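The instructor's notes for this session suggest beginning with a concrete chain rather than abstract definitions. Hand out the sequence below and ask the class to guess, before any prediction is shown, which regions might be ordered.
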Amino acid sequence: MYTKILVPIDGSPTSDCAVAEAAKLAAICSARVRLLHVIDMAIYTSGFEQAEVYINQIRPLELQASKELLARGQAVLEAANIPVDTELRESVGGRVATIIVERAAAWGADVIVMGTHGRRGMGRLLMGSDAELVVRTSPVPVLLVKSV
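After discussion, reveal the predicted structure:
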């Protein structure tokens, strides 16, 4: 049975579905859930802003939004009486999928439950798929959840 369920979230409807699915699985298995949010700070900067603007404005706003996202997910799970904790990680240009797999291994997760947009064809080639990379490189099972 699963005792530790890692759920990467990004605030999308698909990650909300993953949280709901993880709650069901955790209830069945009496498992603990860890919500993980990875901020790719490279997305929030063009490289042309002054360092103090990034340090004093952009980064603090993104960190606050990320903490609020994790708190909302935590509240959902706590309302369902699921033991939950959160983890926030920052990346600058690295693959989010790599960080997800690293954090799953470091925490000793038994399974990763994550949302997927289900892109195919050119959309997947152009956008890349963090879910696909997690599936291919994860040392533990991965449950992909599409939004309904």
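Then share the key points. The helical segments are 13-29, 51-79, 96-107, 121-127, 130-137. Residues 52 and 58 are 9 Å apart (CA to CA).
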